[in-house]
Design a protein that fits this description.
Hypothetical protein af1432, 50% helix, 6-stranded mixed β-sheet, 5-stranded mixed β-sheet, Ubiquitin-like (UB roll), 729 residues, 6 domains, alpha+beta
Length: 729
């Protein structure tokens, strides 16, 4: 783990008291004393590394308690984690002393520990194991999210490569998981910290802008809330109104997607009205507040989101409206009860407090679907991981059966997805659907509120092209399974047919020769070969003729083989030599690996970098590349560690500098003079535009490393009249 955790004796005591006081609220004193003794025993002999780990687990336990809201068994499991992993106590000891719940959680955490600490960044095979282990008990997921959050909070003192690993893991896995489980505050913090450690410049830009506009933003929130508060106070409702600024990560995403300046973003914040309402009056009071707000401010009907009537799959309940506030600015208002707010902050974990069959079944359904998807052996690792992430982040639609039963599906789901959501057999035999009384094909995309009826046929079987238009991992998994079963049957028939034809022609089959033929025909697997025979893409007699030709050639080759002396032997070399670079170390210690530098960010020696496995091979990007966050969050399993070897670099790299300054006499000549005198720097091109007394120019130069670049930028900035010099991506 790392000695990047600071130990403060006061904090240790505070954590210690907080956790043990919590456990004593519902546990007998002897159980709490036994827990304390077991934790102490695992610390002997005193080892600073173990102590750091204990501090990490204690901080993690506090997050699971205060920020997620889990109960005694989970907190106990987190505190005992180190004792079990170190071998001081067995899972049987845990079950005997603390019961089945604590033992189940620890078993899941122990399974995860076997490989989670060994992976580099997001390594596909281990991540599949990690996800499957987490899918066994949802509390394991909550603990791992809490641990990741604590590691990210402490990462500021970790090594750069460790920070990148944590940032990729957070973007790719833990933030989406937190989103799916309704832990929005944790999700936002993980995304913000990930951005902070990978693109500090962008993070600081948004943070600085938020700080600059803080006063005006707070003033506007007051202007919006004061008249609303005055009107609501007359209704007799008990409520609280507060403003919430959006996360830095979400603001930066908006800047990039909409390609606008910070000053053009109006929805930097949301107003939240939280009602202290009895359970049976929650919805009625929320709609009452809605009525008051829309009487005062003009609503945007397209931006109404009603998660009161139909909550999200992760339990989120709220009423969102967007209204025209003072100065003609759009403001989002969220209306919810205190119970709904706690669920919104703590996600599905809050349902342990507000227990209900509906929420539990929703969670169980998601875990079952997750396990089925991850255990699908036919899907590639990248496909499984893509399916998994789509299930985490997809927006939802709500559709109904003819009897009025409600189904939640991801946006873009088809009639076929709906059929598989009801039952696998219904999906396998689906030929069309009736949506709102109208006949539609199986690939028809559904919309919220649709009433759907499925038409089936006993003669229908799954088709390969179904995989191209279904949107749910459940449908994809079931289709692959059914296609595999059908292919297996056809392959067995093809094998039997080929064997029988060979016997009829008095041919004794040599398995080695048959495998050689299959490879020569460029089949990746034997199954694919027989599947093409079954589909009549290969004619059996033609296959047998090719087999006999191969066998005859082999026989002639053996007869005509001549011995050649070592002195006469010539090694044939490939004329197309692969270009290798030794200036860079990829993954753990690989050098001489072929790679390309990403054109989107033009990395040079000395930049903090990472490797990305693309369809064109390994590409090297700067950690602050404009595309880095997207690559981390969508394709984390393709990210490789990379670092420069040596200290200065032997190659030259091209970079472009953006120079802005006063349009005055000789300023361009002075810039070019500095560049020409700088040792190891070569000018490649320059383009200057002048307007209203200012000039803006792009200067392209070649140099060896970031030290030379920083020195050049410093000297250019010192030229009289130059306002800024920045490196372009």
């Amino acid at each position: 783990m790392g000695n990047n955790l600071s130990i403060d004796s006061h904090e240790f005591l505070r954590l210690y008291r907080r956790l043990y006081l919590f456990l004593r609220q519902s546990w007998k004193q002897e159980m709490v004393l036994r827990l304390r003794e077991m934790v102490r025993n695992s610390l002997r002999p005193t080892d600073p590394g173990v102590l750091y780990e204990l501090i990490l687990e204690m901080r993690t336990a506090v997050i699971t308690l205060d920020e997620i809201g889990l109960k005694q068994p989970t907190v106990c499991a987190v505190l005992l984690y180190r004792s079990v992993i170190s071998g001081h106590y067995s899972l049987e000891d845990i079950r005997r002393f603390f019961g089945d719940e604590v033992e189940v959680i620890l078993r899941g955490l122990k399974k995860v520990s076997r490989f989670s600490d060994k992976r580099t960044a997001v390594e596909s095979e281990n991540y599949m194991k990690l996800l499957l282990s987490m899918a066994e008990d949802i509390r394991v997921v909550f603990v791992l999210i809490a641990r990741q959050l604590q590691l990210m909070r402490d990462a500021k003192t970790a090594e750069r490569s460790r920070r990148l690993d944590l940032a990729v893991e957070s973007s790719y896995l833990y933030a989406p998981l937190a989103h799916r489980l309704g832990l929005y505050a944790i999700k936002s913090e993980l995304e913000d910290l990930s951005l902070k450690y990978t693109d500090r410049e962008s993070y600081d830009y948004v943070a600085e802008k938020l700080n600059e506009t803080k006063r005006s933003r707070e003033k506007y929130i007051r202007e919006f809330i004061e008249p609303l508060d005055e009107r609501l106070s007359k209704t007799g409702l008990t409520y609280e109104i507060k403003g919430r600024t959006k996360s830095i990560h979400s603001i930066l995403n908006k800047l990039k997607k909409q390609k606008i300046d910070f000053e053009q973003i109006y929805d930097l914040f949301a107003i939240r009205v939280i009602l202290d309402a009895p359970a049976d009056q929650e919805k009625a009071q929320c709609w009452q507040v809605y009525s008051v707000i829309t009487d005062m401010y003009q609503p945007n009907p397209r931006r109404l989101k009603d998660w009161l009537s139909i909550p999200k799959s992760n339990g989120y309940e709220s009423l969102h409206i967007t209204v025209m506030g003072p100065d003609s600015r759009w403001v989002e208002v969220q209306i919810r009860s205190r119970r709904m707010d706690e669920i919104a902050e703590r996600g599905l974990a809050a349902h342990w407090k507000y227990k209900g069959v509906k929420e539990e079944s929703t969670l169980d359904s998601w875990l079952t679907s997750l396990r089925e998807s991850l255990e699908d052996k036919e899907a590639s690792l990248s496909q499984q991981l893509t399916d998994f992430r789509l299930d985490l982040y997809e927006e939802e639609i709500f559709v109904f059966t003819p009897k009025g039963d409600l189904f939640k599906l991801p946006k873009g789901a088809t009639v076929l997805d709906f059929a598989f959501a009801i039952h696998s057999k219904l999906g396998a035999t689906c030929i069309s659907g009736r949506v709102n009384g109208r006949n539609v094909p199986i690939k028809h995309q559904l919309k919220s509120g649709d009433q759907v009826e499925i038409n089936t046929s006993a003669h229908q079987t799954p088709k390969q092209d179904w995989l191209s238009f279904v949107a749910t991992s459940r449908a994809r998994t079931k289709i692959r399974q059914l296609l595999k079963e059908e292919t297996g049957k056809q392959v067995d028939i093809a094998k039997e047919t080929l064997s029988r034809r060979m016997k009829n022609r008095k041919i004794e089959v040599d398995d080695a020769h048959l495998m050689q033929l299959i490879k020569k025909l460029k089949y990746k697997t034997v199954t694919d070969f027989y599947a093409d025979i079954a589909a009549e893409k290969l004619e059996i007699n033609w296959v047998i003729d090719r087999y006999l030709e191969l066998e005859n050639r082999e026989s002639e080759s053996r007869d005509g083989t001549q011995l050649v002396s070592a002195g006469q032997f010539t090694l044939k070399t490939d004329l197309h030599e692969v270009r290798n670079f030794d200036e860079l170390v990829i993954d753990q210690n690989l050098t001489g690996v072929d790679y390309k530098l990403g054109r989107c960010c033009n990395p040079i020696f000395g930049d903090e970098i990472f490797g990305f496995v693309s369809s064109q091979g390994i590409k090297i990007h700067r950690v602050s590349c404009p595309n880095a966050q997207d690559l981390f969050s969508r394709f984390g399993y393709r990210v490789l560690k990379a670092r420069w070897s040596g200290t200065t670099g032997n190659s030259s790299y091209t970079i472009v500098l953006r120079v802005i300054g006063n349009d005055q006499l000789n300023i361009v000549a002075n810039l070019m003079s500095i560049i020409s005198k700088e040792e190891g720097v070569q000018m490649r091109s320059i383009s200057i535009d002048s307007n209203d007394g200012l000039f803006q120019g792009n200067i392209s130069v070649m140099l060896a490393n970031t030290s030379m670049l920083e020195q050049l930028i410093r000297k250019l900035k010192a030229v009289k009249g130059v306002k800024s010099v920045t490196r372009l991506n």
